[in-house]
Design brief:
- The chain is of the alpha/beta class.
- It is 46% helix and 15% strand.
- The chain has helices at 12-23, 35-46, 62-75, 101-128, 150-169, 186-191, 206-215, 224-228, and strands at 3-6, 27-32, 52-56, 80-83, 133-137, 174-179, 220-223.
- It has a 7-stranded parallel sheet with strand order 3-2-1-4-5-6-7, with helices on both faces.
- It is globular.
- The relative contact order is 0.14.
């Protein structure tokens, strides 16, 4: 069966995508920082009958990234790599004049540097897969200027550029940067705790990601709402 590595997989969009792939028979290697929550997720997904390896850790740790790829190799390889783990840089978000530089460094390390590090680690297996693919989770803050979203948006904009260049350098792979749109996640709640307006459940975004896997359009940046509406 195909094998996927998903970071930030204990809840939110990562868990929802993992569940959809498990239902399709994919084997999974899952990452998150909280062992208890990740373990609960893995146990729930194992009920689909697929193999699930849960490895708690920090994606900024090169050793942890190597462990994720080694676990996937033991399951048969890497067909899909999903960089979903994210850090805000400040919780709640603040204006640039107040943004702690250590927070910005953390956002860049998690959202950009670690994502590239994991790609580098997994590239040999991705290249040997019949249909290797990389999905990086972007944000509209990577393309639009929203007050207080500067640090996070900058890290995601850098990730978008890395994904675009990777697609040029690795034409045998599909590399999709996906803006999932607004979602009701813990990350958003931490970013803007005073905004309690209704937002789509992460599970509602998963069909957009599955469409990419099913139709395998050209590498590029895609917006989940457009994919859900049947547009590219």
């Amino acid at each position: 069966m195909p094998v996927a590595i998903i970071t930030g997989a204990s809840k939110g969009l990562g868990r929802a995508l993992a569940g959809a792939l498990a239902e399709r028979g994919w084997d999974l290697v899952l990452d998150a920082r909280t062992p208890e929550v990740l373990g609960e997720t893995a146990e729930a997904l194992a009920s689909y009958g697929t193999r699930v390896t849960a490895l708690p850790g920090d994606v900024t740790d090169a050793g942890h990234r190597a462990e994720l790829v080694a676990a996937a190799w033991r399951l048969g390889g890497v067909d899909l790599l999903v960089s979903n783990a994210s850090a805000l840089g400040a919780e709640p978000l603040v204006r640039l004049e107040e943004l702690p530089l250590d927070g910005l460094r953390r956002a860049l390390e998690v959202n950009t540097v670690a994502a590239l590090g994991l790609v580098q680690e997994a590239l040999p297996l991705l290249r040997s897969a019949a249909a290797g693919a990389v999905i990086t989770l972007s944000s509209d803050a990577a393309a639009e200027a929203y007050g207080t979203w500067g640090g996070y948006g900058a890290s995601k904009a850098a990730l978008d550029q890395l994904a675009a260049v990777l697609a040029v350098e690795e034409p045998g792979l599909r590399v999709w940067a996906v803006d999932p749109g607004d979602m009701a996640t813990d990350l958003y709640a931490a970013a803007v705790p005073d905004d309690d307006g209704p937002r789509p459940d992460p599970a509602d975004v998963v069909p957009a990601l599955l469409r990419l896997l099913d139709e395998r359009p050209a590498s590029g940046r895609y917006a989940a709402p457009a994919l859900l509406e049947g547009r590219r």
